[in-house]
Amino acid sequence: MALLTLKDIGKIYVSEGSVSVGIRGVNLSFNKGEFVAVTGKSGSGKSTLLNVISGMDTYEEGELFIEDQPTSHYMQQDWEEYREKYISFIFQDYNIIESFTVLQNVELALMHIDDKKERRKRAMELLRRVGMTSHIRQKGSKLSGGQKQRTVIARALAKDSPIILADEPTGNLDAATSAEIIELLREVSKDKLLIVVTHNFEQVEAYSTRHIRIFDGSVESDQKYCGTPSIDICEKEKEDTQRSIKKQIKNGITLGRTIFTAKPKLSVFICLLLIVGTLGVFLMTTLCGNANDIFEKKYMFTHIDGRLVVTKRSGEVISQEEVDILVEKYGAKDSLRYDILLDMGNSVYVTFSEEEDYWEKSASLNYTYGKKYSGKIIGRYPEKENEVFLYLPVYWQPTVGKESLKLKEVMIDSVYYDLVGVKYFYDNNHLGECLFTEEGFNFATARHFIMNNSSVMVKVVSTKEQGSQIFQLHNIYVSFDMDPDKIYIEHNAYNNLPSDAFTTTVTYSSEYYKYNYNYNGSEKIYIFNKTFTDENITRVRPVVKNKRIMSESLIMSDELICRIAQEVLNLKYTQASLFFEDDEAAHQAAEQIKKEGYIAVPSNTTYEPGAEETMMSLISSLVLVFAWLIAIVFLAFFINLCLGRTLGAFKGDMAIMRSMGIPVKVIRIGMYVRMLISLLPAFVVVAVSAALIYTSPKTNEYFVYLYAWQYVMIFIGMILLTVRVTYRQIRKLFGQSVKKALKGVNKE
Ligand code: ADP
Ligand code: MG
C-alpha cells in the first residue's frame, strides 16, 4: 500500500478568459521514509503539484489516493480534515504567524495534546531540535529568515503528520543557512514522506532518496537512489482526538486567548471600541428610561401585593363591623376601612428647620403605615401620630441626611410632621413612601378631606348693635397640642375685635367628593356643616409646627379634624381594603366575597387601559423610544464598521493556520472567543458605571434605574452584534481557498 498515489492528475488554471496548464498527466506514488527532491524550471508546475497534494488547491483531472482511498469526491470540509490529518507544509516565505511568539507558533500545532504542561514540554523539545531554544519568547516578526524557517520546521514536526511538503524552503535564505535547514529537515523527518521543491538540486542531493524532474506540467524523470525504504506505512489509525467537539471548543478557547494577547494594541483598541459602544447603549437606555412608561401599567388602585378592594354591591357604606367580619371569615392579615390615601401619591415639601422659608425639594410619595423595612435604617420608626418615617430614593440623602437626620421635619399635604427616621433605596423607578403610625395614617386620611374639600365662613355679630361682619377663612392648620374642642381664628380684622362685645359663629362645611382616579369629573355628593360658637373659640394662638401661618386661617386640633372627617367618611366612604398573604390569596378570597353581595377587586387587576393615557405623555414616550432606537442603530453601525476594519489584521494568520491544518472549527471558535474576551471589559465597565451612578446621591436622580433584564438585553445585544461581525469576518476569511488567502498574505 502506497501512502500517496497520484493517477493522471491534471490541474488547469482559468483566469480572466485565458487557460493555463498547471500540471497534467502526473502519475506518481510515494511512501513513508522517502526524501523526494522536485526540480524544474520556474512555471513548470512544481508548486501546483505540492498544492494539489496538500489539498490547498483542487484538481480537475485524475485521482489522488491517500492510503489507497480516492479523494475526488472531497468537499472543502473534507480537504480541511485531510490536511489536518496528513499534511505539514513549509513555505518559501515561511508563513509564520508574526504576532505569535516562537513558542506560541509551535504550540498552535500541538493542540492535539490535551495536557498543557505536556504540550509545552513537547514544544520545547521540538524547538531544541531546530536550535531555537534561546528565542522562544520572541515574536515571529522579530526573527531572521533562517530562524523563521526553523520555527516553521518545528511547527511542521509538531503536527506529527506523515507527509511534510516544502516549497523552496531555502529560497529566501543564504547558502550556509540553506544547508543547515536541509540537513535539519532530513534529520527530523526520517520516518515521514518529505517532498522538497527546490531550484538548487546540489543542496539536497546528499540527503534525497528520489529526484523528480518536472517539465511543462509533466513528470520528465523520476529517479530513486537508495530504493524505497521499507517502513510500514500508517498501519495504525491515527487517533481521531482532534475531532471531538469538546476538544475543539477547548482548543478554540486556547487559540482565542492567544490571538487576543498576540496583538495587544489591536485588542486594546477593540476593547475600547466595545466599551464605548456598550457604555453608549447603557447610557442611552438609562437616559431614555422613562420611555418604559409606555409599557408600565397604571393602577387604578395602588397595587400592593395581597390587597383586595371591597365595596358593597348596593352602593351603601361598608361598616367597620362588616369589614371585621370579612377579615375574620376569609383570613385577611389586616384591613383598612378608609383606604383612600393608599391611592394618593402626594407631594412632600421639605425644608430645613434652620432655614424656615427655604423650600428645598419636593417628592411624590405613597402613604403607608405600620410597616418595617428590611435592612439598616437611620433613626427610628414613628411612634406618635405626628411622626413620620421616609423611604426615599438615595438622591435625597444630601438633603435628608446620611448617617443621622439632618432634617427634623417634613411637610406632607401641608401638615408638618416630625421626621424620626429614613431609609434609602437605589431604584429610582419606585415612588418613595411616607410611613406613619396607624393613628398618624388615620389622621392624614382625615386631614386629606378637611384640606381639600372645605370652606369656612365666620359670622361675627355685635352685641352692642353695631352690625355684623362675615369673613371667609381660606386655610386650615392643625395643632397637635390644641384642646380638641376648640378652634382658633387667625384673621387681622377678627383679632382686633374686643372679645366681649361680639358673638361669633363659625360655619365649617366640608364637601365630600366621590372618589375618582385623578379627580377628573368628580361628583359632589355631600355637604357637611359644623357650627362653632364663642365658647369654642380660643383667643390664645395655639402652637402650630408651621410657623408660617397665613392670615385668614382656621386652626384646630388633630383630634377635631379626625372627628369631623370620621363623621363624613362614616356616612359616605363606601370602600375598604383587605390585605391577604399575596395576590393569589386575594384572588381566591375575592371569588368567595363576591358571592356575599360585594364587589371585590384585587389591586393587581385594576390597571387602566392604555386609552386613558394622555396623548402628550404617549407622544413623548414614543419620541424617547425613537431617539433611543436611532442612537442604538447608530452605535451598532459604528461598531460594526470599526470592527469590520480590523479584519485585515487576521487574514494572514487565519490562512496560515488553515494551511497548517488547524481545524476550521477550532479557528472559528478561536475568533469568537477572542471577540467575546474583548467584550468582557465593556461589561465590567458598564456594571461598575451602573453601580457608581445608582449608589451615588448626586447622579441617582438623573439616570433611570435599569433592571437586571435590561442589562441582560444590552449584553445579549452586544454579544449578538460582535458575533455577527465575527461571523461575517469568518465568512470572508474562509470563503476563499487557502491558496488564494495565502497569496493575499504574501502580497502584503
Ligand atoms: P513553479 O512552482 O514550478 O514555478 P507553478 O506551479 O507555480 O510553477 O505554475 C505552473 C503554471 O501554472 C504556470 O504556467 C503558472 O503561470 C500557472 N499558474 C500557477 N498558479 C496560477 C494561478 N493561480 N492562476 C493562473 N495560472 C497559474
Ligand atoms: Mg513555485
What report would you give on this structure?
It is built from 20 helices and 29 strands. The protein has 748 residues and is an alpha/beta fold. It has five domains: 4-238, 3-Layer(aba) Sandwich (Rossmann fold), CATH 3.40.50.300; 246-294 and 613-747, no CATH class; 307-337 and 576-607, no CATH class; 341-446, no CATH class; 453-572, no CATH class. Helix 5 (145-158) runs parallel beside helix 6, helix 9 (264-287) packs antiparallel against helix 19 (708-735) and helix 18 packs antiparallel against helix 19. The protein is rod-shaped, with a radius of gyration of 44 Å. The protein starts with a strand and ends with a helix. The model is unreliable at 228-242 and 516-521 (pLDDT under 50).
Quick overview:
With 748 residues, the chain is an alpha/beta fold. Helix content is 39%, strand content 25%. The chain contains 20 helices and 29 strands.
Strand residue percentage: 15-25%
Name the structural class.
Answer: alpha/beta
CATH topology of the largest domain: Rossmann fold
Strand order of the largest sheet: 6-7-8-3-9-10
Q: What is the number of domains? A: 5
